[in-house]
């Protein structure tokens, strides 16, 4: 028998009122919140093939998009690159360092992260790879200028105005950049680096297992696990992975948003020796034919 409170009102009425006013809306809210509120996002930047002025622009724009979008809580750079121009590689290295002030940035090596591509990876919070990934080639490649000569029909105000300097001077510039590269690796890897700089200056390529032994990477994991590692750095439990290229260029650019397909890596193109490399300084791995 249900008793009333003396005013003719049953306690059951209060219980039902509590359920209707408090419990049911709370349950509905808990059920609907994950469906109405967007999940935090991990943004993916794919660094593919040569680093050049154009690909550096694309990379930089995607990184800027991630930094300015509050939904993106971390960035993962998936690397398939032999490196490229020294100035563009250095620029992206500094861009990644700046981005880390706003959100975690993790890199993961798919097939290849050589030279300038590893330079950029060294700026990230953590570097991961697979056992068979190719990592390293820490060094500089450059073409030497012609031997200076006098051109009677051309007036210059200095003996090296037409050449940019002596051949020895170009060698010294390459050495300066090599040591800057090595120092960037030493700074980025810190106490985890187990290799001395003399070994790294040989510009060898290492597989993922050896790179881990040398402290050039933080672990051997899959790409999906690298997303989890970035989420952990950002303090996320539930998240979704988004490709930054269509988000960055899909609104008014050439990418049809919603139809973007992640491009498959052409390994012949990835490992191909460049045919006509313009003069300049490069952080790039060049695999010469076996008969050379």
Please name the defining characteristics of this protein.
10 helices; 292 residues; alpha/beta; eight-stranded mixed β-sheet; elongated; three-stranded antiparallel β-sheet
Architecture overview:
By secondary structure, the chain is of the alpha/beta class. The chain contains ten helices and eleven strands. The strands form two sheets. Strands 1, 2, 4, 5, 6, 8, 9 and 10 form an eight-stranded mixed sheet that branches. Strands 3-11-7 form a three-stranded antiparallel sheet. α4 (116-121) links the parallel β4 and β5 (126-129). The mean pLDDT is 82.
Radius of gyration over all CA atoms, rounded: 27 Å
* Termini gap: 100 Å
Strand residue content? 15-25%
Number of separate helices: 10
- Arithmetic mean of pLDDT: 82
Q: Main beta sheet: strand number and arrangement? A: 8 strands, mixed
């Amino acid at each position: 028998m249900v008793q009333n409170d003396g005013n003719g009102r049953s306690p059951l009425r209060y219980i039902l009122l509590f359920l209707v006013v408090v419990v049911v809306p709370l349950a509905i809210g808990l059920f609907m919140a994950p469906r109405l509120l967007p999940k935090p996002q991990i943004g993916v930047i794919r660094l593919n093939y040569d680093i050049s002025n154009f690909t550096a622009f694309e990379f930089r724009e995607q990184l800027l998009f991630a930094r300015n979008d509050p939904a993106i809580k971390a960035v993962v750079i998936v690397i398939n690159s032999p490196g490229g121009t020294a100035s563009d590689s250095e620029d992206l290295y500094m861009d990644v360092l700046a981005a880390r002030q706003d959100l975690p940035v993790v890199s993961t090596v798919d097939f290849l992260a050589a030279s300038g591509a590893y330079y950029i990876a060294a700026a990230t919070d953590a570097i991961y790879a697979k056992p068979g990934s190719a990592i390293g080639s820490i060094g500089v490649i450059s073409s030497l200028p012609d031997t200076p000569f006098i051109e009677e029909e051309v007036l210059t105000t200095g003996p090296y105005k037409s050449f940019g300097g002596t051949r020895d001077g170009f060698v010294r510039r390459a050495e300066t950049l090599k040591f800057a590269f090595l120092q960037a690796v030493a700074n980025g890897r810190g106490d985890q680096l187990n290799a001395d700089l003399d070994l790294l200056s040989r510009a060898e390529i290492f597989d993922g297992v050896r790179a881990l032994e040398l402290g050039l990477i933080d672990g051997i994991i899959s790409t999906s696990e690298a997303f989890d590692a970035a989420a952990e750095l950002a303090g996320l439990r539930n998240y979704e992975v988004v490709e930054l290229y269509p988000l960055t260029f899909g609104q008014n650019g050439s990418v049809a948003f919603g139809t973007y397909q992640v491009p498959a890596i052409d390994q012949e193109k990835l490992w191909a020796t460049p045919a006509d490399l313009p003069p300049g300084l490069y952080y790039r791995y060049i695999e010469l034919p076996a008969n050379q």
